[in-house]
Amino acid sequence: MEFARFGSTTWSDPVEVSHDASDLERGSWVVVVTFEGELTAVRFAHRDEGGGAPGRAERWPGVAGWRASLDRAGYVAGVEEIRRRIAAGTVYQVNLTTMLETHLPPDAHLPDLAARLARGNPAPFAGTVHVPSAGLDLVTASPERYVARSGDRLLSSPIKGTAPTPEQMLTKDVAENVMIVDLVRHDLQQVCSAGSVVVERLCAPEAHPGLVHLVSDVAGRLRPDVTWADVLGATFPPGSVSGAPKSSALQAIADLETAPRGPYCGALGWIERDDDGCATGELAVGIRTFCATTAPDGGRLLRFGTGAGITWSSDPEGEWAECELKTRVLMDLASGRVGP
Question: What is the pTM for the complete model shown?
Fold first, then answer.
């Protein structure tokens, strides 16, 4: 069965696939946008509330043999290069990531991995998009809201700052968050009414499995006739997984990362417009996300990314340690080393 699930809502029986953001102004869609900007929207025949999620945790076979696009030495070198660019004044912060991948066993079914994650790493924006016919097969344990819309209200909740405990949060973590909040404010101002963009919460600690994040809320009132295409155009890719200034950060990412991110660090969630024309939706940042793709040998690969925000105050080895911290719980679950 092809389906998508976010929260307690399950969509099933896909009837239409679109890559055109203008189509988001009609009906209900499940949406995945890669970090590189490729949008895939799927419309389903059925939508159900409540009930159990498809997938059985005990069936997941476990995976091993992960390979990194940037190993420890490569990542540390990338951090050092970003610090040189910051010293030169071309950028203030860059989110540097490494992509991990391994071959999937023939009997691996990603909805079963989703069931393991739901038990062992519950997340506020957890979701599954299992529509192989549209090229989508992924599960996420994302803790981060990219944008949520309710009528003319638009809300973004960037995460920046990660530590094992609140007491271990550094001054650098706060500075990271504040920089990205300023970037998100600028992005929202492009589509919101003048004077309506406000920071509702700044650097609030939030506990997640195995770590603590700093989270802020930035909200605004959309101008009349703003479309989802306008919102994506103004705010994508999310500031927390790109950097500031965004254009310079994206150039650094293109220069230093050796593999495409795909859905990792992109956006995924649902969007709809009801019969009265009211637009709602919630898109998460595609972090803590596993994605199945076709391997060159015709088999299947499982991809998973991790990264950190690099500033002038960054310690290269410390940033690598943050990448490892973010992956620890999820990789243990995916490997089968720990029970769900």
Answer: 0.96
Euclidean distance between the first and final Cα of the chain, in Å?
A: 23
Residue 289 within a domain: yes
CA gap 322, 287 in Å, rounded = 14
- Is residue 150 a part of any domain in this protein? yes
CATH number of the domain that 113 lies in? 3.60.120.10
pLDDT, mean of residues 190-205: 98
The count of structural domains within the chain is 1
Instruction: Look at residue 340 and tell me if it is in a domain.
Output: no
Supply 219's token pair: 């909200």
- Predicted confidence (pLDDT) per residue in 277-295, tens digit: 789 999 999 999 999 999 8
Range of the domain at 174: 3-335
pLDDT of residue 332: 94
Whether residue 53 is contained in a domain is answered as yes
What secondary structure, in 3-state letters, does the chain show? CCEEEECCEEEEEEEEEECCHHHHHCCEEEEEECCCCCEEEEEEEEEEECCCCCCCHHHCCCCCCCEECCCHHHHHHHHHHHHHHHHCCCCCEEEEEEEEEEECCCCCCHHHHHHHHHHHCCCCEEEEEEEHHHCEEEEEEECCEEEEEECCEEEEECEEEEECCHHHCCHHHHHHHHHHHHHHHHHHHCCECCCCCEEEEEEEEEEECCEEEEEEEEEEEECCCCCHHHHHHHHCCCHHHCEECHHHHHHHHHHHCCCCCCCCCCEEEEEEECCCCCEEEEEEECCCEEEEEECCCCCEEEEEEEEEEECCCCCHHHHHHHHHHHHHHHHHHHHCCCCC
